[in-house]
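Single Protein Entry

Contents — chain, fold
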Amino acid sequence: MAIENLKARIARLPEQPGVYLYTNAAAETIYVGKARSLRDRVRSYLGARGSDPKTDALLDEITGVEVILTDSVVEALALENHLIKQRTPKFNILLRDDKNYPYLRLTVQESCPRIMVARRVERDGAFYAGPYLPASLARRTIDLTHKLFGIRSCNEIITGKRARPCLEYDIKRCTAPCVETICSPDQYARSVAAARLFLEGRNDELIAQLRGRMLEAAESEAFERAAQLRDALRTVETLRDRQQKMVTPRLGDRDACGIKLGAAGAVLQIFRMRNGRVIDRVELVNDADQLGGASEAEVVQAGLQQFYAVQPAPPEVHVPVSLEDAEPLGELWGRQTGRRVEVVMPRRGEKRALIDLAQRNAALAYDTRFNQEGATNYEALDALQSVLGLSVLPRRIECFDISTIQGAETVASLVVCEDGRMKRGEYRKFRIKGLNRESGIRNRESGQVSPDDFAAMHEVVHRHFRRVHERGGPWPDLVVVDGGKGQVNAAYAALEELGLGQLVAIGLAKQEELVFTRDQRDAIALAAGSQALRLLQRVRDEAHRFAVTFHRHARRMRDLRSALDAIPGIGPRRRKLLLTRFGSLAGVRRATREELTALVGPKVADAVLRHFAGQ
């Protein structure tokens, strides 16, 4: 056992608090831990062989140990969490948050903040709220911040020197900070502060502020502004009254944690309660192979440390199991927030009922996530992430396909796959508008693709993501296009025009089933029958089916159309009268004004004559 070679080194370690780091033969950090007594904690590993498979695997790889002294266990906790995030050692528990649900990002670091959708929380100085579930709730919340508080939605650099405001101001969705004579920086800052209270769920405090500003505006005879504040006040009061009924004012601000640990992995759920109301829920997950026999207490502590590294902790954090470092954790989070934080395990009453609720939700999420079908889908997504070298699990995949025959009735389709399941409610179809309909797109005999196919892909990707950008999401983790390098380049060209070049797009070519990326010159050949390839094929084939179905419908509608449909004043009844009376379109074209007037009247007769004269 490699760790036995370190006995002399371990015997000289100090009996002080600190952090220890195990390294392997490649000098990589493979485990980070904290201890009240470094010598006792590290020495305990010498007799840990056989305790669980994870520890055995760790002991087999250890070739070195480093220690960092700290003044207290609290500082050791903070340093341990920082080193785990920085070095991502493979034997530490690293739970991932549920990326399916978005956050809202208030860019308070900007002079004129905006609100936008974010898929992950970053340390960039912005304020984050969420996650929101369902995801549509995030978009509705953004819409409310525009209507209630006039938070801007544009990407302009605000100087206040613009000559006139845009349409958003006219429709009362922006206070126009771009025009300083309309909205001063102080006024906009007050709107941003109100929006932040709204996002934090502090509705009572927000209502008091809105009422005071409304009365102030009324006293200064700014009646239009007072009316806007009155409407905002009523809306916030309605939202507060319609909040979920799980309200216990005595509980105040606190978080409750629930966990389900099983053979397939672990699900940790954190219920966030503010002003006695549960305002949202956060889910952290991990697979069994990365837990290595960890106990519930270890998983809970690791998950909470990661969560509160980016979120301020409330005054109380309720946990379902006793944590060894509960007191140091509370002290650490208290230093970060500037107030007292307690980590407690309730045993009875309303507080225990909230823990039980979180536990039931964690169990339900575990059963949903780790059932047989879900496990297969996650294995395919993990394999796809590994093959493509993606930074995140591709939980949301969007796929585009083009369908046409010799450039006629060119259409496109978009299908969405989340967590390995197709979401038919988010499918979209497009009629391609910018192509030359006389030129061929795909030669069915030679199989060659003309540049028009690339133009079609560019157009549909640009149109779709322009709308997604306007809505603020949801954003895909992976974009798939049906085709090769040319289609991938066309998709990236459209994304970069929108400032979305950071999105990942790949192409899947038919027949050879090769994967094309922007960064690799050679195509990637996935193993036949691999789960990653099967997932891509399933998504691509669904996009193809949807596009072909729409193309057939477009051809049928084209064949059923008549040239008479383009003439103003002629509907189905008059079209039938004309064709019955004159026998054909050519007969209508040869008819005199008197004949047409007798059948459809002088106004429509003139319209028919003008139409054919123009042709």
Observations:
- Residues 197 and 206 are 6 Å apart (CA to CA).
